[in-house]
Amino acid sequence: MPAIPLPGLQSLRPRLEGSLVLPGDPGWDAARSAWQLAVDQRPAAVVLARSAADVAATLETARACGLRVAPQSSGHNAAPLGPLDDTILLRTFEMAHVHIDPERRLARVGAGVVWAEVSAAAAKHGLAGLAGTASDVGVVGYTLGGGLSWFARSHGLAANHVTAATVVTADGRIRRVDAWHEPDLFWAIRGGGGAHAIITELEFALFPITEVYAGAMYWPLERAEEVLKRWRDWTATVPDSVTSLGRLLRFPPLQEIPQPFRGRSLVAVEAVAQLDREAADALLAPLRELAPELDTFAPTPAAALDMLHLDPPGPTPAAGDGFQLTELSDETLAALLAVAGPGADVPLLTIEARHLGGALAPGARSGGAVSSLDAAFTVFSGGITVDAASAAAVHTALDVIDRVLAPWRARTSYRNFTERPGHGIAFEPDHVRRRLRQIKQAYDPHDVIKANHPIDSSR
Ligand SMILES: Cc1cc2nc3c(=O)[nH]c(=O)nc-3n(C[C@H](O)[C@H](O)[C@H](O)COP(=O)(O)OP(=O)(O)OC[C@H]3O[C@@H](n4cnc5c(N)ncnc54)[C@H](O)[C@@H]3O)c2cc1C
Fold first, then answer.
1. Which neighbouring-strand residues pair with 325?
2. What local confidence, expressed as pLDDT, does residue 424 receive?
3. Which pLDDT does position 272 carry in this prediction?
4. Record's InterPro entries (predicted)?
């Protein structure tokens, strides 16, 4: 472990509006702790930044001390960051302002804002953003990686709807980034990850969506094959206003898990339809024909969609990973169910496939480094890792899923669902990655900014 340049780092303290936390300081464990509790982050220092000036001062100090800077809001995707002993962890959660412009249908948010705050503020004006399933995910990290929401098939990735950002580049300069200012950076931050600059404020479009028809149907896991095949066939018939996923769920018998899920193994279909009740019910009929044990579909406020996917309610020790599939054929499902179906003993809480296409399809949207997902479905699997034995079991199960679905893997992978990089599947086509590399070289030639997914990393 390199020696921590303490005097240099301590010179940062009086320059900050926020705070510098060093190993051994009070609050050290809270400051370095990620949402992913299984990741034990041990950086050289933590800066709890409050302003763009704090970020600039941190970058200047890091350069002077020969350190790197890793920006992080919630730490949902902390796993791929790797060792941080030569790195200042720059936590952004104190940069938490949210401004909604209802006239222009725009949100302008600080780097540490999570989706719950945007959804609640936007809903007051009859608007909604392109939030993912979990409302405690950071808006900036999610959007830099693409942003796959419940409105993805109608509106594309969240990154497509970024209109401007304030960033601090590795040289410590605070810059406005939009279509007219720093257009290369503006392109890179829309889906190309967080390696190019540290975002201090993000501006993006909101949409007049107040209520949708949304819910889930659940069946015993024994019916997985029949249900997943029916759902897969159904996805070929639905309009782009419907975004859905199919999943295998195994809930542990814990008190914290509400009934009727506690201790159960289920197959589920979740969907959000921007349709009225009558049209949505007609569309859902082929799924209802399978007589689900529980059917929660109902008119749902857009801001309440974070309840749908049953994501963990707070920081969790977990491991997960994902990739994309070209198809979900009978053979694909057979391969998956052979290792994760009713007969298998699998330590994964969820194995899920999200339906892509629509506005996510290549060519449907343009603008940023990643403006589409070139696959038919994206897969994410994850499990709880409370100790070394459960972590090993979860990682082995993730390896098995990887291996059996390899024949159907798409050429590119999705950044946000990648928590175990290094499998050699790129996040974008070669020409996009070349341009991302050139922009990184122009703005951060000494690689001071450390992203969870560096440009040349892959799944
Ligand atoms: C329970 C759960 C549910 C999820 N649901 C969805 C979903 O529905 N759709 C989806 O697309 N994804 C989803 N994700 C994945 C999620 O989008 C990624 O994990 C994303 O990276 C999280 O962003 P964050 O800022 O919360 O995490 P962090 O770990 O804080 O940040 C991830 C990375 O983003 C970059 N970054 C963060 N802040 C900045 C900044 N200010 N400047 C520059 N770079 C920055 C950094 O490189 C950082 O390492 C989910 C993840 C979990 C664990």
1. 377, 409
2. 81
3. 98
4. FAD-bd_PCMH, FAD-bd_PCMH-like_sf, FAD-bd_PCMH_sub1, FAD-bd_PCMH_sub2, FAD-linked_Oxidoreductase, Oxid_FAD_bind_N, Oxy_OxRdtase_FAD_BS
Residue nearest to atom 25 of ligand 1 (CA): 141
Numbered ranges of CATH 3.30.465.10 in the chain: 98-208+430-443
Q: Ligand 1 test: best mutation among 416, 419, 457, most atoms within 8 Å of CB?
A: 416
Residues 45-72, mean pLDDT to the nearest whole number: 97
The matching CATH number, chosen from 3.40.50.2300, 3.40.50.300, 3.30.43.10, 3.40.50.360, for 6-91 is: 3.30.43.10
Amino acid at site 353: A
Helix (H) or strand (E) holding 287: helix 277-288
CA-nearest of 413, 420, 415, 414 to 385 is: 420
Task: Judge if the beta carbon of residue 416 lies within 6 A of ligand 1.
Answer: yes
Of 46, 108, 100, 118, residue with least CA distance to 75: 46
> Distance, CA 148 to ligand 1 centroid (Å)?
11
* In the chain, ranges of CATH 3.40.462.20 domains: 212-417
Please state, in angstroms and rounded to a whole number, the distance separating the CA atoms of residues 65 and 78: 24
Distance between Cα 300 and ligand 1 center (Å): 25
- Ligand 1 lined by 198 (C-beta under 6 Å): yes
pLDDT at 164: 98
pLDDT at residue number 2: 60
Name the least confident of 1-15, 35-49, 55-69, 94-108. 1-15
Q: Evaluate if residue 1 carries a pLDDT over 60.
A: no
Q: What is the fold of 212-417?
A: Vanillyl-alcohol Oxidase; Chain A, domain 3 (3.40.462)
Mind listing the pLDDT tens digit for each residue in 254-271?
Answer: 888 888 899 999 999 999
**What residue spans in the chain does CATH classification 3.30.43.10 cover?**
6-91
- The mean predicted confidence, pLDDT, of the chain is 96
